[in-house]
């Protein structure tokens, strides 16, 4: 098996060196690694350029992007990276964030997972984040979901869903997972394969702003209201005192009251809500 990686990076000078090191020491290195610098203005490009001199499989692409945090721009950067390598002979396509690190046998282990399961469409490692000086499993990890930071697709599956699709409030990785399952492929993370996420989740935009955006995202994805209540309830115990959960729920309700419609197809909406109802009421199977 051979795989390629695509990374959309914007001003990641603080973290990308760790990611570059992690990939450079892999027991099974990628056939190609396209790093799309999405309008970086810091030292990101210089750091990547230095690594590319020692590792020919690394290719830096500089791309002008919109200012600020733009999820559509990130998706465009990833899809642009794929357009550059789509003619290569390969088996797996990976999206890799520029703020993660992992062990030297990471990709070899994931590849073995694909080799042993021909129905596996999407896999990847298990995210950990630092808390009190120690890296711990992220509390909202799920055995039904592969984090955006380390999503590795079987090529046939990736092309079937036509890659990532931009969403107005983010969530293109979640949409991709749903489409993978809807097309009959399996989505399975590897809990034993730890990945250090060096930049804390939501740190780029702040807790409250992230919670509000994610409530809007849930509505744009077509999340069933009852499922949303159950999901939010699980996060109420999180500090600071359930503020994140309350803000996300208020955002979701406001989107409904304002008449905002889901941004997905009717087919995907029905599939997702059926999944969510079965998750809440498994006896209905």
Description:
The protein has 285 residues and is an alpha/beta fold. It has two domains: 3-197, Spore Coat Polysaccharide Biosynthesis Protein SpsA, Chain A, CATH 3.90.550; 207-284, no CATH class. 41% of the residues lie in helices and 20% in strands. Helix 7 (207-221) packs across helix 9 and helix 8 runs antiparallel to helix 9 (243-257).
Quick summary:
The chain is α/β, with parallel strands linked by helices. The chain has ten helices and nine strands. The protein has two domains: 195 residues, Spore Coat Polysaccharide Biosynthesis Protein SpsA, Chain A (Alpha-Beta Complex); 78 residues, no CATH class.
List the helices and strands and how they pair.
Elements: E1 3-9, H1 16-24, E2 32-38, H2 44-54, E3 58-63, H3 71-85, E4 92-95, E5 100-101, H4 106-116, E6 120-131, E7 134-137, E8 152-154, H5 155-160, H6 172-182, E9 186-197, H7 207-221, H8 225-234, H9 243-257, H10 266-280
Parallel strand pairs: 1-2, 1-4, 2-3, 6-9
Antiparallel strand pairs: 4-8, 5-9, 6-7, 6-8
**Annotated CATH architecture of the largest domain:** Alpha-Beta Complex
Biggest sheet: strands, sense, closure?
Answer: 9 strands, mixed
- First-to-last CA distance: 37 Å
| Helix-strand category | alpha/beta
How many beta-strand segments? 9
Considering the chains and any ligands shown, give keywords for the structure.
globular; nine-stranded mixed sheet; Spore Coat Polysaccharide Biosynthesis Protein SpsA, Chain A; single chain; alpha/beta
């Amino acid at each position: 098996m051979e795989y390629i990686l695509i990374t959309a990076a914007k001003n990641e000078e603080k973290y990308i060196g760790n990611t570059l090191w992690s990939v450079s020491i892999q027991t099974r290195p990628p056939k190609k690694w396209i790093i799309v610098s999405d309008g970086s203005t810091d030292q990101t490009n210089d750091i990547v350029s230095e690594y590319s001199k020692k590792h020919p499989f690394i290719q830096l692409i500089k791309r002008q992007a919109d200012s600020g945090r733009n999820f559509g721009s990130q998706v465009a950067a990833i899809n642009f990276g794929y357009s550059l390598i789509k003619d290569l002979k390969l088996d797996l396509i990976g999206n890799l964030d520029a703020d993660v690190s992992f062990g030297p046998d990471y990709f070899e282990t994931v590849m073995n997972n694909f080799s042993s399961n021909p129905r596996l469409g999407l896999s990847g490692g298990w995210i950990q984040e630092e808390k009190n000086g120690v890296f711990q499993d992220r509390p909202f990890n799920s055995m039904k979901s592969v984090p955006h930071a380390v999503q590795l697709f079987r090529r046939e599956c990736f092309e079937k869903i036509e890659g990532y699709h931009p969403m107005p409030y983010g969530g293109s990785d979640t949409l991709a997972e749903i489409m993978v399952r809807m097309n009959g492929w399996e989505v399975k993370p590897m809990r034993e394969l730890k990945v250090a996420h060096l930049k804390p989740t939501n740190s780029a935009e702040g807790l409250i702003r992230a919670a509000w955006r994610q409530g809007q995202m849930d509505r744009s994805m077509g999340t069933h209201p009852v499922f949303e209540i159950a999901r939010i309830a699980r996060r109420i115990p999180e500090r600071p005192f359930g503020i994140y959960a309350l803000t996300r729920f208020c955002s979701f309700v406001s989107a409904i009251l304002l008449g905002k419609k889901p941004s997905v197809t009717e087919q995907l909406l029905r599939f997702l809500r059926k999944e969510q109802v079965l998750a809440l009421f498994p006896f209905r199977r």
